[in-house]
Amino acid sequence: MVESNEEEKFGEFTPDAHGVGGGLWDVTKVIITSILIVLPIRYFIIQPFIVRGASMDPNFEDRQYLIVDEVSYYFREPERGEVIIFHYPRDPRQYFIKRIVGLPGDTLEFTGGRVKITNKAYQEGFTFEEPYLMPPDRPTGPYMRITLGEDEYFVLGDNRDASSDSRVWGVLRRELIVGRAFFRALPPKKFGFVPDYSVAY
Question: What predicted TM-score, i.e. pTM, was given to this entire model?
């Protein structure tokens, strides 16, 4: 689960020497310009979120501060292996963070720690490798087989033992996806871009 960080901080400004009126107008212009620049970026391009809980351990830990890319999915479809932020289907006011394992049209079969995927391109099926899991073959739960429809995704937490995900509440609809985890701002030791495990198949 993640929470949206609604705080925006603007820099401090000092009025110039042309009088209080002129100084206030200059400050107002700077503030208005900042708002016109920052708000579209904040609400339509990138958005900060804070991770809550242990469902994505150890890759995304509690209290980590993430920057989410909200633009890419306007130009392409989400890909397998990407970490996404989305509205929780049972309560859209909440935001969840999970990893995409199944894409529209996939048939997924879970056996132990393995995920076998069958689709039009791979009619014989293939085993989806998940190098981000620790340990690599950690169990996904009881046997499950599911076929995804149009605009349906199957998402899982990296911490399979402590994640409420598609195994519990079902498929994720495309319109609920907010964006992909793009950059990690906090903690400082994890500062940097989120590792890319996406695969376009």
Answer: 0.76
